[in-house]
Amino acid sequence: MKKILGVAVLIIFAIMMSSTDVSAQYGKKKKRTEKDSGSRGDEKTEKVEVRTEKGTPIALEKFWFGLNVGNPFISNNIFVMGLGPMAAYKFNNIFSAGLIGDINYTLLWRQNSPNENYFDLSAGVFGRAKFFRAFYAHAEYNITSLDNVSTLEPRTNFPVLLVGGGYSSPSYTAWGYEATLLFDTLGNLGRVTNRIPITYRLGITYNF
Questions:
Q1: Which alpha helices (H) appear in 85-204, and where do they start and end?
Q2: By the 8 A CB rule, do 110 and 116 touch?
Q3: How far apart are CA 48 and CA 191, in angstroms?
Q4: 27-40 pLDDT per residue, tens
Q5: Strand blocks (E) in 63-197
Q6: What pTM did the predictor assign?
C-alpha cells in the first residue's frame, strides 16, 4: 500500500515540474544548413516541442493526474485532514480509470495528557465518467487501514466501496480544480469509525 502511494506522489510531482507553455510542441523538423556559399547544404533533423491544445505533452495525452484534500475538519480539540494522489488513463473523452491513495491525519489535543496522532491509509482503484463537461460520476474501491485508537490491535483493515460524483472546473488549460462527494455503500467506514458514511474531497487536476 505504501509503495502505491509513493509511486503516485512521485508521478504527480513530476507532472507539476513540467512546463505548461501552451504554444510548445514536441516533434521533428528538418533544418538545412549551408557549409559555404557555393554548397547545397546538408539537411539535419532537430527536435521541437509538440503539445496538445491544453498544453500537455503528447506522451501524456491519454493520462490525467490529481491531488485531493479529503474530509478537512477542525474543532477545539481535534484536527483532521486527508491528502490523496491519483493517476488515471483516459479511454476516451468520457471514461477513465486509475489508481488512488489517501493518507488521513488526525490530531487530538489533550489538556491534561500528551496529544495523540493517528495516520489512516488507503489505496485502491477508481473509475470516472465525465458528462456535461463540468460534472462526473465516480466509483472507487479501496482497502482502508485505520490506526486504532482504543484497541490493542495496531490497525484495522477493511474494504470500502465509494460511489458518487463531483464538479470539475471547465478549463482550456491543463490545470483545474474539483469537488467530489462520495457515499460509502458497504457501510464499513461508519461501522468501524462511527462516522457518517460520506466522504468529501477538494482538489486540483492536471489534464482531466
A1: 188-193
A2: yes
A3: 56
A4: 433 344 444 445 55
A5: 63-74, 78-90, 95-108, 116-131, 135-147, 155-168, 175-184
A6: 0.71
